[in-house]
Design brief:
heterodimer, A: conserved putative lor/sdh protein from methanococcus maripaludis s2 fold, Rossmann fold, 3 domains, 5-stranded mixed sheet, B: 278 residues, alpha/beta, L-arginine/glycine Amidinotransferase, Chain A, 3-stranded mixed sheet
Chain lengths: 427, 278
C-alpha cells in the first residue's frame, strides 16, 4: 500500500476554512446547530477558540475550523453555516507587490516558515508550493499558483506577497498522522535506549522504500573515517537511500579509501598511519580530476568500490556541496553555494524521510530547505548538531546522539532482520 | 400607565395583492379592497377600545404592503432600527418609514450593511431577550449585529415553514414570561432554545396557527387576533388574558394579520426594557 505523508497537505489545501460565530450562540443553540450542520454535511470541525459570555447579556464568541473532504463539500457547508450567522474569519486576499529590484523582496515581504502554507487569492485558498523556510512567496495570478521563492531568485516584477493578510499556516501536528518516532517526545536524546531508536529509523527506512518514497541521506566524512563506509554502501545498494548530499570531504576520503585503503592517511582496516598517507587524499582528488568525473572514474575502472562507486552503480543521484576549506575539490563539487542550494532544492523535491549523519554544516543547510512535514533524523556524536537544527526551525528533527559506526552497524543489522522477516512472512 | 399604548398603522388605501413574495400571496386570489378596508377599520376600533392610541403613516400609491407597519423597524426605547427588506418590492417602503420615524422624534438607526432585516416582523422582545427569526426573511448575522448595537441578548430562531415566514406569524410574546408559539414553524434547535428561555410557552394548535392566531396584538392583557382561533382564545383565557377576535381574512390572503398591521411605538408590554428607567 502506498503511503503518502504529504497527501493530507495536498488534499486539505482547498478544503479548510475558519469561521467565527458571535452572539448568544450557546443559549440559542446556534453553536451546536452549526457544528451539527458541519458534520451532517460530511465535514469535520475543531473549535480553535471559544469565549463564553459571563452575564446573560454578554455575547459569546467562537472560532471554528471547518474541514471537508473536497472543495465542493466545503462550499456547501460554508453556505449552510453562514445562513446561521457564521462568518469566515479571513475574507481578505493576500497583498501582492511586484519586485522592484532583482534579488530582493519588496519591503514588508511575507517571510515563510517550513510549515504548510496557503495564500488567499480571489477568494480562494491556494497551497504554496516548494515550501521552505526563510523565503518569500511569489504568486502567478494566471494559474493561480504560489510558491516559495528564495531571495536570490527574485526577478524584477515577480509578484511577492507582502504582509500577513490572506496568508495562513498549518502547524504540522494538527494534520499529519503521528510521527513514526512517537516515543521520542523530546527532540534530542542522549539518554534514551539507542536500540529502540535505531529500530525506529530502520523501520522508517524500510517503510519508505516499500512505499516507493524518497529517502535523502546527508553524510559527513566521519562515516568514512570511522570505517562505516560499507554500511552506507549497503544502504545504497539495497535501495534505502535515493539521494545523497555530502561535501567534498566524504567523497574524497571515500575515494581515497577505495584507491589507497586509507582515510586521511590512516589504514581503516589496521588503524596505522600509511607512509606519506597525508598525501593520499590529494592524490585521490587528482586522479579523479584527471579522470574527468566520478562516473568516468567508475567507467574507466579506476574507482571500483566505496560510497560514491555505489551511487554511480545504483543510479543514486548525489550532490557534493563545496566549502571554503576544501582541498581540490573533486570535479563534481559545486563551489557556488547558491548554485548548490538551487540543486539541493531540486533534488530534495518529493523527499519524505531524511537521515543526516555526522555533519553539522550540511545537516543545517538541508534542514533549511526541507518542508516541515519531512521527517528528519539527525545522528551525531555532538548533541549540538541536532539542537542547532531544531533551533534554526527544523523542529520536526529527531536527534540521536551516538557514534556513527555503531549506529550505522546496528541500522544495517535491523534492516537485514526486517528484510528476512519480510521474506519469511511475505510468501 | 400614564401614557396610552402607541400603535402605528397605515390605512389600506393602496393595499392589494400586486406581487407574490410569500406562500400566501396569489394574484389569482385578490383581496376585496372594500372588505379589507372594513376589516382594517374594525381592527383599529378594537385596538382603540382596548386602550391604544393609534398613529398613522400616510399610505403611498404602489406600496401595497406599507399597510404592514410591523415591518417598518425594531423599536428599542427612543431608537428604531430600520428594516432592510429582502424583496425589492418592499425595499421602497424603507424611506417612507424612515421619514416618519425622524419626523416623530425617533433616533433612526440604519440596519447593518449587507443583510436583510424585516423589523418587528422578525424581532420581538420577551423579557430581556430579543427573539429573532431568520432564514426566510432576515439574516442571523444581522440580528447578532443589531443586538450588539442595542446591548441586549438575542436568540436567533430558525424558521422552516414558508407559510410562517416572519417570526411574528408563529411567535407572540404575551408578557415578560409568557409567549405563544407554533412549534412546527421552527427547527428543533429553535424550539429547544425557546423552551429553555421562556417560562410559559403556549403551543398553538395548527388550525389556529394557520388562521395566524400567533399574529396577535397584545395590549396589556388584551390579545387581539383574527377570527377562527377558538382553541387559542380558550388557552389565552386560561392564562388570564382577554382575547378579542376581529376578521382579517383579506389580509391573510397577503400573509398578514393583526400584528403585521401594527407597530408598537412605545415598546411591547412583554419587553423588560420598557419598564426600566434609564
Amino acid at each position: 500500500m502506498k503511503r503518502q505523508p504529504t497527501s493530507l497537505a495536498t488534499e486539505n489545501s482547498h478544503s479548510v476554512e475558519e469561521i467565527e460565530i458571535r452572539g448568544h450562540i450557546v443559549d440559542s443553540l446556534i453553536l451546536p446547530k452549526i457544528l451539527d450542520v458541519i458534520t451532517s454535511f460530511g465535514g469535520q470541525f475543531s473549535i480553535k477558540h471559544i469565549d463564553i459570555g459571563h452575564a446573560r447579556t454578554d455575547p459569546s464568541h467562537a472560532v471554528v475550523e471547518v474541514r471537508a473532504p473536497d472543495e465542493a463539500t466545503l462550499e456547501e457547508i460554508l453556505a449552510q453555516v453562514c445562513d446561521h450567522g457564521a462568518v469566515p474569519t479571513s475574507q481578505h486576499d493576500c497583498q501582492l507587490q511586484p519586485a522592484d529590484i532583482p534579488g530582493t523582496f519588496p519591503e514588508g515581504f511575507y517571510s515563510t516558515t517550513n510549515q504548510r502554507t496557503e495564500i488567499r487569492w480571489e477568494g480562494r485558498w491556494i497551497p504554496v508550493q516548494d515550501q521552505e523556510m526563510d523565503c518569500g512567496v511569489t504568486v502567478d495570478t494566471a494559474g493561480p499558483t504560489a510558491r516559495c521563492l528564495p531571495m536570490t531568485e527574485v526577478h524584477k516584477d515577480d509578484l511577492i506577497v507582502v504582509g500577513h493578510a490572506g496568508v495562513r499556516v498549518f502547524p504540522e501536528e494538527r494534520h499529519v498522522e503521528r510521527h513514526a518516532f512517537e516515543f521520542m517526545s523530546s527532540g534530542v536524546s542522549t539518554e534514551k535506549p539507542k536500540g529502540v531508536m535505531v529500530r525506529e529509523v530502520a523501520q522508517e527506512l524500510f517503510r519508505n522504500r516499500e512505499a516507493g518514497e524518497k529517502t535523502l541521506f546527508v553524510g559527513g566524512p566521519a562515516i568514512v573515517h570511522t570505517g562505516s563506509g560499507p554500511y552506507l554502501e549497503h544502504l545504497i545498494r539495497e535501495g534505502f537511500v535515493n539521494v545523497l548530499f555530502a561535501g567534498n570531504a566524504l567523497a574524497t576520503h571515500d575515494i581515497e579509501h577505495a584507491l589507497f585503503g586509507t582515510s586521511l592517511g590512516v589504514h581503516l582496516d589496521e588503524g596505522n598511519i600509511a607512509e606519506a598517507g597525508h598525501e593520499h587524499h590529494l592524490r585521490a582528488i587528482n586522479r579523479l580530476r584527471r579522470a574527468g568525473s566520478i562516473p568516468q572514474a567508475v567507467e574507466q575502472g579506476l574507482l571500483q568500490s566505496g560510497v560514491m562507486y555505489e551511487c554511480v552503480k545504483n543510479d543514486v543521484p548525489f550532490l557534493l556541496a563545496g566549502s571554503i576549506r576544501d582541498d581540490g575539490p573533486l570535479p563534481e563539487v559545486v563551489t557556488d553555494v547558491l548554485e548548490a542550494q538551487r540543486r539541493m532544492r531540486q533534488m530534495a523535491k518529493g523527499v519524505t524521510f531524511c537521515l543526516m549523519v555526522a555533519t553539522t554544516l550540511h545537516s543545517i543547510a538541508v534542514g533549511n530547505l526541507l518542508p516541515g512535514w519531512v521527517k528528519v533524523v539527525c545522528v551525531d556524536i555532538n548533541p549540538s548538531t541536532a539542537i542547532k537544527l531544531t533551533d534554526r526551525g527544523s523542529i520536526q528533527t529527531i536527534g540521536i546522539v551516538t557514534d556513527v559506526q555503531p549506529f550505522l552497524r546496528s541500522l544495517v543489522e535491523e534492516l537485514t532482520a526486517l528484510e528476512s522477516g519480510q521474506s519469511s512472512t511475505g510468501g | 400607565m400614564d401614557q396610552p399604548p402607541r400603535i402605528l398603522m397605515c390605512p389600506p388605501t393602496y393595499f392589494g395583492i400586486e406581487y407574490e413574495i410569500n406562500a400566501w400571496m396569489s394574484r389569482s386570489r385578490p383581496s376585496d379592497h372594500a372588505e379589507a378596508t372594513r376589516q382594517w377599520q374594525a381592527l383599529r376600533e378594537v385596538l382603540v377600545r382596548v386602550g391604544a392610541s393609534i398613529e398613522e403613516v400616510l399610505p403611498v400609491k404602489e406600496l401595497p404592503d406599507l399597510v404592514f407597519t410591523a415591518n417598518a423597524g425594531l423599536v428599542f426605547r427612543n431608537k428604531v432600527v430600520l428594516s432592510k427588506f429582502l424583496h425589492p418590492q418592499r425595499q421602497r417602503e424603507e424611506p417612507v418609514f424612515s421619514e416618519w420615524f425622524m419626523q416623530h422624534g425617533f433616533e433612526v438607526v440604519p440596519p447593518p450593511e449587507g443583510i436583510s432585516f424585516e423589523g418587528a416582523g422578525d424581532a420581538l422582545f420577551c423579557g430581556e431577550t430579543l427573539f429573532a427569526g431568520y432564514r426566510l426573511r432576515s439574516d442571523a448575522s444581522g440580528h447578532q449585529r443589531i443586538a450588539e448595537t442595542l446591548g441586549c441578548r438575542v436568540l436567533p430562531l430558525e424558521l422552516v415553514d414558508p407559510y410562517f415566514y416572519h417570526l411574528d406569524t408563529c411567535f407572540c410574546p404575551i408578557d415578560r414570561e409568557t409567549a405563544l408559539y407554533y412549534p412546527r414553524a421552527f427547527d428543533e434547535y429553535a424550539r429547544r432554545a425557546l423552551q429553555e428561555a421562556i417560562p410559559r410557552l403556549i403551543a398553538v394548535e395548527e388550525p389556529d396557527a394557520r388562521r395566524f392566531g400567533c399574529n396577535a396584538v397584545v395590549v396589556g392583557r388584551h390579545v387581539v387576533t383574527n377570527t377562527g382561533c377558538e382553541s387559542l382564545h380558550h388557552q389565552l383565557r386560561e392564562h388570564g388574558c382577554e382575547p378579542w377576535a376581529t376578521p382579517l381574512d383579506e389580509f391573510l390572503k397577503s400573509g398578514g394579520s393583526a400584528k403585521c398591521l401594527t407597530l408598537r411605538l412605545d415598546g411591547e408590554d412583554a419587553a423588560t426594557w420598557k419598564f426600566e428607567t434609564t
